[in-house]
Design goal:
The complex is a heterodimer of chains A (346) and B (334). Chain A is an alpha/beta fold and 346 residues long. In chain B, α5 links the parallel β2 and β3. Chain B has 2 domains: 296 residues, Thiamin diphosphate (ThDP)-binding fold, Pyr/PP domains (Rossmann fold, 3-Layer(aba) Sandwich); 33 residues. Chain B is globular, with a radius of gyration of 21 Å. The chains are: A alpha/beta (346), B alpha/beta (334). Chains A and B meet through α4, α5 and α6 of A and α4 and α5 of B.
């Protein structure tokens, strides 16, 4: 695979999840990462970046390109291939009062670094009796759709959400990349910022200046009266297509993007389900034990009396992600499967 | 190399005697069921105390594993006070107050070694002058964290001192089953950094090695790996029975080289220590740990602290769970 080509192949037909005006500036999803990092590093000297190939290469997906020439090798640190040490470096520096951004090239590699993530980063504030603060941001590229095969395509957010002490953020477009990454870096708790590698070239309106999207607040993308569709990360795009198609068939979807999956804005979802009486949850990760299971469980706990049908889930099958592009296409949920799932509720 | 002077040696011996004395008291408290699991310091006093006396407490960080706290007296009374809270399982037992540059015990083996590199890198970025000394054992050196962090520190030239206390045993696993290398210090070669083995029963040797490593680190020359060889004279922890695997003849040989007894003998020969001094230090050490224990026992523990410090503030869900929890035990969550 060639990440650079993907990053440079702009796709202009994406719309922002915010109110967008065609005359306003558009920016790519990957480009929003670089722009945000650069602006934050200019305003806050305590922010530095460390990871594999983040320097001269600018990250294998290019979303850190240009940072090292501007900020130097001490603030944009190329590390050895050592994921535990990369997270540990960030932890130590965060305890020291810096705001490190540490990158794990592919989300699959969190498994290599899980001791430092789950047993150290997530727990140090607690283990220090509150005596340490960890303003640590872990960036990583997740998601399928690039034929990157079983070990470079996973969506493992549910594993992270299960660990008290981590905040888990999944931007669905470039606007959210900027607002959420800014919030993550300014946050005093460890965050995992999951960059969807299939989205890198997609553009939408993004303000020039830094702004924050609060962690833990979801967003209603589209109001509707018949069914609540909760879509995570890149699945927001597929859910939008599904909602458009269904509106022509008389089903009015309310589309919710949680933006952060830990903490989860369950109140927004419950409020919506109380209105629509139907819910479908969509994510790229496998269905079993996915974040959709938690959302469905919380919906039935809090809005059982409003439900007119079982809660639907659209997710990946319980098998590794295929290398073959033809097979991968069948593996990842798409608008068609969302449409089918929603129709089954009625 | 810089050697400790007579006055420093007296202070080192005093701290070693204090550590040994308080360790005995702590062991008894554990056997009475008054504190949790303890990892005795016996046999490690010279290596730990000798090392920290070569540091500057105002600028240098110490990252202990779990056997060291009683040997860190040089860093101030807060270390013992916090350690006693920790032994009771009190959440405040991890919070060593600022500006004391000592991290709480790290139970995950090797996990703090990368943190040391991060702390040191943070110091470099902030143009601070100190070093970070991280303690770990022969067993922890087999963890991937050690190799990843050692390698990274070498590349970054981070101001770190890796102090591997080789006490010959990782619970019941002897060093020849831990590594086929000639020494633990020899692993430094792969990191491109100096590695040396010192007699961990001789605090002056450890002091010299750490001083030298500190000079290297603060002059921008990067990290050093020091292996201090000792013999674990006690159990791994209070949950261990070493008689099942430590050969008694090896232990009795090691007892002849007991670092505390050896230094007491040597210092008496040089008229730098006396039985009266010994007795005075031991009495004060016991009073001090008893005082710290009483203080810890009397530190209030609210049920409401159960969910504290997961994040800097509760998420909405945590707030609801906290209220539910407090309601269920009939307390207010104020």
């Amino acid at each position: 695979m060639s990440p650079d080509n993907i990053f440079e192949g702009a796709n202009e037909d994406e719309e922002s999840s915010s109110e967008s005006n065609p005359s306003e500036r558009k920016l790519g999803y990957g480009a929003a990462v670089v722009e945000t990092m650069a602006q934050i590093m200019r305003e806050d000297e305590s922010v530095f970046l460390a990871g594999e190939d983040v320097g001269a290469h600018g990250g294998v997906f290019g979303y850190f390109r240009g940072l090292q020439p501007e900020f130097g090798e001490d603030r944009v640190v190329d590390t050895p291939i050592a994921e535990q040490a990369i997270i540990g470096l960030g932890i130590g520096a965060a305890v020291q009062g810096l705001r490190p951004v540490v990158d794990l090239m592919f989300m699959d590699f969190i498994c290599v670094a899980m001791d430092q993530i789950a047993n150290q980063a997530a727990k140090l504030k607690y283990m220090f009796g509150g005596g340490a603060t960890l303003p640590l941001t872990i960036t990583t590229a997740g998601g399928a759709g690039l034929s990157a095969a079983a070990q470079h395509s996973q969506s493992l957010e549910a594993m992270l959400c299960h660990i008290p002490g981590l905040k888990v953020v999944m931007p669905s477009d470039a606007y959210e990349v900027k607002g959420l990454l800014t919030s993550c870096i300014r946050e005093d708790n460890p965050t995992v910022f999951i960059i969807n590698k299939r989205k890198l070239a997609d553009t939408c309106h993004v303000p020039e200046e830094l702004f924050e999207i609060p962690l833990g607040e979801g967003h209603v993308i589209r109001e509707g009266s018949d069914v609540t569709v909760v879509a995570i990360g890149r699945m927001v795009d597929e859910a939008k297509k599904a909602a458009e198609k269904l509106s022509g068939e008389g089903i009015d979807c309310e589309l919710i993007n949680p933006r952060t999956v830990q903490p989860l804005d369950i109140d927004l979802i419950v409020e919506s389900v109380s209105k629509t009486g139907h819910a479908v949850i969509v994510h790229e990760a496998v269905r079993f034990g996915g974040i959709g299971a938690e959302i469905a469980s919380q919906i039935q706990e809090q809005a059982f009396d409003y439900l007119d049908a079982p809660i639907g889930r659209v997710a990946a099958p319980f098998s590794p992600i295929p290398f073959s592009p033809a097979l991968e296409k069948h593996y990842v949920p798409d608008a068609e499967r969302i449409v089918t799932s929603i129709k089954n509720l009625f | 190399m810089p050697k400790p002077n007579e006055k420093q040696l007296q202070m080192i011996l005093e701290d070693m005697v204090v550590a040994r004395t308080q360790a005995g008291r702590l062991w008894n408290l554990q056997r009475q069921g008054q504190v949790g699991t303890i990892a005795p310091i016996d046999g490690h006093e010279a290596a730990i105390v000798g090392a920290v006396h070569a540091l500057e407490t105002e600028s240098d960080w110490v990252l202990p594993q779990y056997r060291e706290p009683l040997g860190l007296r040089k860093y101030g009374p807060e270390v013992l006070d916090t350690f006693m809270l920790y032994n009771l399982g009190h959440p405040a037992g991890g919070h060593i107050p600022e500006p004391v540059k000592v991290a709480p015990s790290q139970i995950s083996l090797g996990a703090s070694i990368p943190h040391a590199v991060g702390l040191a890198w943070g110091m470099s970025l902030k143009d601070e002058s100190g070093v970070v000394l991280v303690f770990f054992g022969d067993g922890a050196s087999s963890e991937g964290d050690f190799y990843e962090a050692g390698n990274l520190a070498g590349v970054l030239k981070a101001p770190v001192i890796f102090l591997c206390i080789n006490n010959q045993w990782a619970i019941s696993t002897p060093t020849h089953l831990q590594t086929a290398a000639d020494s633990f210090a020899s692993k430094a070669e792969a990191f491109g950094i100096p590695g040396l083995t010192v007699d961990g029963n001789d605090p002056a040797s450890v002091y010299e090695a750490v001083s030298e490593a500190r000079n290297r680190a603060t002059s921008g020359k990067g990290p050093t790996l020091i292996e201090a060889t000792v013999y674990r004279l006690g159990a791994h922890t209070t949950a261990d029975d070493p008689t099942r695997y430590v050969p008694s003849e090896d232990l009795s040989d090691a007892q002849k080289k007991d670092p505390v007894h050896t230094l007491i003998h040597e210092m008496k020969e040089r008229n730098l220590w006396s039985d009266a001094k010994q007795s005075e230090v031991e009495t004060a050490a016991l009073e001090r740990i008893d005082e710290a224990f009483e203080k810890a026992k009397n530190t209030p523990l609210s049920a409401n602290s159960l969910m504290d410090h997961c994040f800097t503030s509760d998420t909405e869900r945590q707030s609801r769970q906290r209220s539910f929890l407090m309601h269920s035990i009939g307390e207010s969550n104020e």
